[in-house]
Amino acid sequence: MHLPFKGEPLPGRCYESGMRPGRGGEAGASAHGHKRDEGAARAKPLKVAYVMSRFPKVSETFVLYEMLAVERRGATVELYPLLRERSEVVHPEAVRLVARAHYQPFFSWTILRSQLHFLRTMPRAYLGALWALFRGTVGSVNFLVGGLGIFPKVVHVARLMAAEDVDHVHCHFANHPALAGFLIHRLTGIPYSFTAHGSDLHVDRRMLCEKVAESAFVVPISEYNRDLIARECGDRHRDKLIVIHCGVDTAVFRPEDPDDAREDDRFRIICVGTLHEVKGQRFLVEACRLLAHEGVDVECRLVGAGADARALQERIQALGLADRVQLTGERTRPQIAELLRRSDVLVTPSVPTRKGKREGIPLVLMEAMASGVPVVASRISGIPELIEDGVSGLLVPPGEPAALALALGRLHADEQLRRRLALGGRAKVEQEFDVEQSAALLVDRFRAVSST
User: Fold this and answer.
1) Which residues contact 384 (CB under 8 A, 6 or more apart)?
2) Cα dihedral angle (118, 122, 128, 133), rounded to 10 degrees?
3) Any idea what the Cα angle at residue 423 is, between residues 418 and 424, rounded to 5°?
């Protein structure tokens, strides 16, 4: 691919030297030099650039499978991860996306030339974007250092996107990825949106309102998140806040064959997620101790990896649960689907952390419900929007092992309750949390924005 240097204009864009592109709907006219011909817009395939913190991250399947579903809706997806994730476990569907992802170093001679290009042709836009980053993040070491660290590569990525005639930029997470979208828009006029999940929104909302103001739209994954953003940034932006649930593939995650024979009568519990304080696995370990004390033949698998692995293993050993609670490490999506089909219940014992982290709506809840597996989850954040207590799952107060054990004991003792919750959970996901439906809503938004 040829990139213009020495001050020549970017292909497909028309700028006056020093001009900053407009905002929102006007950005398309100023950045392109004209509004798109409607017939040409329909003929040209929609090209969407996805920006995320890391890729391929095994715990962020919602990003991977959303992109694949968006492609099935006829859009071309380009990947621009801020960092390359190095992991021994990679979902098989991610392999081909890794091969074509636009990974960038923090700095190189090519990246330097892109800084000089914008300084020569659009100095006000370049310096204005840098100043907005500094002004908006000063006071937060994490945001300031992180923002300045990614700034050179984001500038270069903005140039790549303009050269590739990207129609829309969509960012997953409200922190640094949304900042990247903000900067790209400032430099190119390409409209952007971002999805706000959990801790990216709840811990530190630095620059959130600036990102919302300049975005084409924002995707909170829950009404809980939508209300939080509206309170933070004012009701004047509420119309921009479009709740689109993350979704799962209900063909991959499906109920098991009822003819499948069980090996024994053990009560099988599964918990899937990063081994981190916010996921609350330690409370599930305590609940398993209480269940075992009550005579329940319980088996619990903690699937995932993370900083709390050693502490959890030590606690399991100290409680004498080594033969009942196992840490299995990370697993791919097909392996998770199979583990779910062999489980009696999935638990997500999420808790808010001391630093303010909290879940959005864990995707694994949807995967389990689609698989016909009853779920028990904490009544926190957007989780009650997925789980209606007693209808599509059971909700418990966060951080209370006794309440968790009581809910699990009910499921163990009541097969009819398990069946009823399994049917209710599957129906809820099919109606509101299917990845194809979510992707269709997103693509409609992308097309509406790019055609203006």
Assistant:
1) 395
2) -20
3) 95
**pLDDT per position as a tens digit, 187-217:** 999 999 999 998 788 878 889 999 999 999 9
Give me the residues paired with residue 272 across strands: 303
Answer yes or no: is pLDDT of 142 > 90: no
- Using alpha carbons, select from 153, 134, 144 the residue that is nearest to residue 175: 144
pLDDT of amino acid 21: 43
Q: Are 185 and 214 in contact (CB under 8 A)?
A: yes
Helices (H) and strands (E) in the chain, counts: 19, 13
d(CA 224, CA 232): 12
Is the distance from CB of 48 to CB of 166 less than 8 angstroms?
yes
Angular region, 395: left φ>0, alpha ψ -120 to 50, beta rest: beta
Class of 24-247+435-450 in CATH: alpha beta
CA-based nearest residue to 451, from 35, 112, 4, 18: 35
Question: Could you tell me the residue ranges of all domains in the chain?
Answer: 24-247+435-450, 267-432
Q: Is 450 in a helix, a strand, or coil?
A: helix
24-247+435-450 matches 267-432 in fold: yes
Task: Compute the distance between CA of residue 298 and CA of residue 292 in angstroms, rounded to an integer.
Answer: 6
Which residue matches tokens 């030099």?
33
Binning the chain into helix, strand and coil, the percentages to the nearest 5 are 50, 15, 35
- Structurally, at CATH architecture level, domain 267-432 sits in 3-Layer(aba) Sandwich (3.40)
Output the CA angle 173-177-181, nearest 5 degrees.
Answer: 120
Looking at beta carbons, which pairs linking 136-139 to residues 24 or more positions away fall under 8 Å?
136/206, 136/207, 136/210, 137/179, 137/206, 137/207, 139/206
pTM of structure: 0.84
**Rounded to the nearest 10 degrees, what angle do helices 141-163 and 176-188 cross at?**
40
Longest dimension (CA), the chain: 76
Helix (H, G, I), strand (E, B) or coil at 234: coil
Q: Is the Cβ–Cβ distance between 171 and 81 less than 8 Å?
A: no
